[in-house]
Amino acid sequence: MASNGYVIDAPEQASLAVAGSKERFPVRRIYCVGRNYVAHVREMGGDEDRDPPIFFQKPTDSVVESGSTIAYPTITENFHHEMEMVIALKSGGYNIAESDALNHIWGYGAGLDMTRRDIQGNGKPWEIAKSFDQSCPCGPLSPVEKVGHISKGAIKLTVNGETKQESDIELLIWRVPEIIANLSTLFELKAGDIILTGTPHGVGPVQPGDELVGTIDGLEPLTVKIGERPA
């Protein structure tokens, strides 16, 4: 028998670094919002109507620390970056009111929704395109007590020093309180959940050897490198 009464060794708890602390934030679930900046909606061939938010999930163990190298994934030839702001929850529930939503946030961070774009675009399930190993790099989280609630500020991604994505958090179609309120009608949100809030325009492909640096005003940066495809 494995330790702690399990028949096999229990998986390690997924967690994220906390800025300026040795303590860590345990990750329970990863939710993502699709098409939440007008310019990105347009570049993906959609219109700018304020349709209901598109939600999907990534596996909890897809989180990757800043400073890591992530493998170029299998079954894709068009591996894309999507820079996003991350919300980390300290509490939750069903049917959270917009007016109460910010009270459930522990902190914020920078994240990447890495995407197999050619898989996403050929009609196959988004799970295959979005929810693969190492698909959710995240920088250290910063608590609300230190950075406040973030509703505006520059969001930027560079690849090998060249700016690829640049926008402002205030251009989110669905704002942070609305995201939490809407998501809580579908799932019971809980402490440890993180939410990626959507990417601005400028998404594009990366290759092995590329270095990605994501920044959001007031938050810790995120840096990852792209490695080779698994053998």
UniProtKB/TrEMBL annotation:
InterPro entries named in the record: Fumarylacetoacetase-like_C, Fumarylacetoacetase_C_sf
Keyword Metal-binding attached: yes
Coiled coil: none
Keywords, sorted A to Z: Hydrolase, Metal-binding
Pfam family of the protein (one): FAA_hydrolase
This protein's record includes keyword Hydrolase: yes
Domain of life: Bacteria
MF-aspect GO terms: hydrolase activity
Fumarylacetoacetase-like C-terminal domain mapped to chain residues: 30-225
UniProt xrefs under PANTHER family: ACYLPYRUVASE, FLUTATHIONE S-TRANSFERASE
Descriptive protein name: Fumarylacetoacetate hydrolase family protein
Gene source species: Neoaquamicrobium sediminum
